[in-house]
Design goal:
The structure holds 2 protein chains of 2 kinds.
Chain A: H1 3-17, H2 20-23, E1 35-38, E2 44-50, E3 62-69, E4 100-107, E5 114-123, E6 128-137, E7 140-150, E8 152-166
Antiparallel strand pairs in A: 1-2, 1-8, 2-3, 3-4, 4-5, 5-6, 6-7, 7-8
Chain B: H1 7-21, H2 24-27, E1 40-42, E2 62-72, E3 75-81, H3 87-92, E4 96-100, E5 102-117, E6 120-134, H4 145-152, E7 155-167, E8 172-184, E9 199-211, E10 214-223, E11 230-240, E12 245-251, E13 254-262, E14 265-281, E15 294-311, E16 316-324, E17 327-333, E18 340-345, E19 350-360
Antiparallel strand pairs in B: 2-5, 2-19, 3-4, 3-18, 5-6, 6-7, 7-8, 8-9, 9-10, 10-11, 11-12, 12-13, 13-14, 14-15, 15-16, 15-17, 16-19, 17-18
The chains are: A mainly beta, B mainly beta.
Chain lengths: ~170, ~350
C-alpha cells in the first residue's frame, strides 16, 4: 500500500472522530473559553479572544466582540443598529455589530474548575455594564454558563452559551 | 521499497496537521466581520430550549433593593358610623373630626434573585413599610378612639414572599407571586404583633410575549389592596410604542403611561392601588370608646402620581414621586369578615416620595 494512501486514511479517520470538544486542550485551560459563542436567545454570536495590544487591549486578558446579530439593522430605518443607549454620547453612533461587549476577563480557575471572572459585560439594550463571570464544565467544553451581575454575584442572571464551530 | 510522498501532498498534510493541532476556537479568533452563521454549527448537540425574558424594550428597571421616604400633606380625618348599621348601633358611634398634619414613613423593599437563569427566575421578596400619623392629641376628642390610637401607634406592614417568572418557551410565560403580610400598629413593645393574623395574598398569571415591545398576561389574584380580601382577575399588559412612549399595566393594582427620556431616565404617569387589612390594638388602659381593644382596619388608597426614575450610576437609581392620595376605604370592623362599624373620610392630600433603589435595568 502506498504510504500516501495510508497517511490520508489516518487523517481522514482522525477528522471523522475528532470532536470540537476534544479539540480544546486542558493543558492551557485559560484559553478554553476562546472561540465563538451563542447566547441562549440565539440573537447574536460573541467571539471571545485574547486581547490585542494593537487595539489597546491587554493580551493577558480576554475580550468578547459581537460578530453576528440576528437583526443587524433597525427595522424602521433599515440602517445598522447602533449602540444608541451607550452612556458615552460619543459612542452612540457605533454599530452594535463589532462592539466589544466583554472586557478584561481573566482565568480564575484551574484544570479541574474552569472559571473566568473579574471582567465586565456590556448590555447595549440598556447601556449598562455588569460584572461578568463564566464557568465551563471540564466534561463539556462547548457549553458555558455566563453570569452578569451587579456588585455581588447574588444580583445577577445566568445564561447558557454554546460554542459554535465550523461545519 | 522506497517510501515516497509527493511534495504537494506533504505540504497539504503538514498544513492539515497544523490545523488539527490547533483548537477550533483559536482558529476562530481572527476578526470575522462577515461571519456566516450557515457555515457554523453548535459544537454541543444537546438541544437548547430558548425562552422569552420577563422584560420588553425600555421597561422601567426592576427594583432589587430600595429605601424610600413617603410623605403625605395635611388633611382632616372624619369618622362616623358605617352605613348599614342599625339606628341603635349607629347611635353608639358619634362622628368626630381630627386634623392630621401629615403621614410619613420609611419604606424598605427587597426583591432578591435566588435563582436567575434563562429558564426560571425565582426571587425572594421582603418589605417593611410604616405610616406615622402626625396628629396632635390635644386637638382630638378623647372619644375619637381611632385617631388617638394612630397618634400614638404608627401602622406597620412587614412582608415576606416569593416571585417566580417561569418562561415556557419563546412566547409564553407564567408568573407566580405569594406573600405573607404582618400588618398592624405593633411595636414589639407594649403592642405585640399577632402572627395568627398574618394576611396571605397570591397571584398567578399566564402570559404571552409577542415581541420585544409587547407582552400580555391574564390571571387571578387574592389581594388585600382593596382593604379586605378579594379574589379578582388581573391583567398584565406592557407595551412599548416607540423609543419614547410605552405603558405598563398590572390591573387593577397599577397602571402607568411611560415616557423614556433615555434608558437611564424614565417618567411614569399613572396610579397604584395600595391597601391592607391591619390588626389595630389598644394598649391596656387606653380609651376604648368603640368597645373593642382589638379591631380590623381596612385601608385602601389610590396613589395617583407622576414618578421619575433616574440612574445615578448603572445600578443605583433615584426615584421621586408626587401626586395625590384619594382614599377608597378606611373603615373599622370588630374582626375579619365582620361588617364595618366605623367609616372614615381621609381627604385627598398631596403626597411625595423620594427613594434610592438598586436596580436591574
Amino acid at each position: 500500500m502506498n504510504i500516501s494512501k495510508i497517511l490520508i486514511g489516518v487523517f481522514a479517520a482522525l477528522l471523522s472522530t475528532l470532536s470540537p470538544a476534544a479539540a480544546q486542550s486542558l493543558d492551557n485551560p485559560s484559553d478554553i473559553i476562546v472561540g465563538n459563542w451563542q447566547p441562549s436567545n440565539g440573537l447574536s454570536v460573541i467571539q471571545i479572544y485574547k486581547g490585542k495590544e494593537a487595539a489597546g487591549e491587554d493580551p493577558k486578558k480576554l475580550y468578547g466582540r459581537t460578530i453576528w446579530l440576528k437583526e443587524p439593522n433597525d427595522p424602521e430605518t433599515k440602517q445598522p443598529n447602533l449602540d444608541k443607549n451607550n452612556p458615552d454620547e460619543s459612542k452612540r453612533k457605533t454599530p452594535r455589530k463589532g462592539l466589544v461587549i466583554m472586557k478584561d476577563v481573566i482565568f480564575t480557575g484551574s484544570k479541574e474548575k474552569l472559571t473566568w471572572g473579574e471582567g465586565s459585560i456590556y448590555d447595549p439594550n440598556n447601556g449598562s455594564t455588569y460584572s461578568f463571570e463564566a464557568t465551563i464544565s471540564p466534561q463539556n467544553l462547548n457549553v458555558m454558563e455566563g453570569r452578569g451581575y451587579i456588585g455581588v454575584s447574588l444580583f445577577g442572571r445566568t445564561d447558557t452559551w454554546k460554542r459554535l464551530v465550523k461545519k | 521499497m522506497r517510501f515516497f510522498l509527493p511534495r504537494k501532498l506533504s505540504r497539504c498534510l503538514i498544513a492539515l496537521s497544523l490545523s488539527m493541532a490547533l483548537p477550533h476556537s483559536l482558529l476562530a479568533q481572527d476578526d470575522d466581520d462577515d461571519f456566516d452563521p450557515d457555515a457554523f454549527e453548535m459544537a454541543d448537540e444537546t438541544p437548547i430550549k430558548r425562552f422569552c425574558t420577563n422584560k420588553i424594550t425600555n421597561l422601567s428597571p426592576t427594583r432589587l433593593v430600595g429605601i424610600s421616604f413617603d410623605y403625605l400633606g395635611g388633611y382632616t380625618m372624619s369618622s362616623e358610623a358605617a352605613e348599614g348599621l342599625s339606628a341603635t348601633d349607629a347611635a353608639r358611634y358619634s362622628p368626630y373630626r381630627a386634623p392630621v398634619n401629615r403621614n410619613s414613613g420609611l419604606r424598605l423593599d427587597a426583591n432578591i434573585p435566588l435563582v436567575s437563569k434563562s429558564n426560571i427566575i425565582a426571587n425572594l421578596t421582603a418589605s417593611y413599610w410604616e405610616s406615622r400619623y402626625g396628629i396632635e392629641e390635644a386637638t382630638v376628642n378623647p372619644a375619637h378612639q381611632i385617631a388617638l390610637n394612630q397618634a400614638r401607634h404608627p401602622l406597620r406592614t412587614t412582608t415576606l414572599g416569593a416571585l417566580i417568572f417561569k418562561p415556557l418557551d419563546e412566547k409564553r410565560f407564567l408568573v407566580f407571586q405569594a406573600e405573607a403580610a404582618l400588618n398592624g400598629n405593633y411595636n414589639f413593645g407594649d403592642i405585640k404583633p399577632d402572627f395568627g393574623l398574618i394576611k396571605y395574598s397570591a397571584t398567578a398569571i399566564y402570559g404571552w410575549k409577542f415581541d420585544d415591545n409587547r407582552n400580555l398576561g391574564v390571571g387571578i389574584t387574592r389581594t388585600y389592596r382593596g382593604g379586605r380580601v378579594l379574589h379578582i382577575p388581573v391583567l398584565l399588559w406592557n407595551r412599548t410604542f416607540n423609543d419614547r412612549w410605552g405603558m405598563e399595566l398590572l390591573l387593577p393594582a397599577r397602571g402607568h403611561a411611560r415616557y423614556n427620556f433615555s434608558t437611564k431616565s424614565v417618567l411614569m404617569l399613572g396610579y397604584e392601588l395600595e391597601g391592607q387589612s391591619y390588626h389595630v390594638q389598644s394598649v391596656p388602659g387606653a380609651n376604648t370608646t368603640y368597645g373593642f381593644s382589638q379591631m380590623e382596619l381596612r385601608k385602601s388608597e389610590i396613589r395617583a402620581r407622576v414618578s421619575w426614575d433616574k440612574s445615578l450610576t448603572d445600578f443605583i437609581w433615584f426615584n421621586v414621586q408626587a401626586g395625590v392620595r384619594p382614599m377608597y376605604r378606611y373603615e373599622l370592623a370588630q374582626r375579619e369578615n365582620a361588617d364595618a362599624f366605623i367609616s372614615n373620610r381621609m381627604g385627598m392630600p398631596l403626597y411625595f416620595r423620594v427613594g434610592f433603589n438598586l436596580v436591574s435595568p
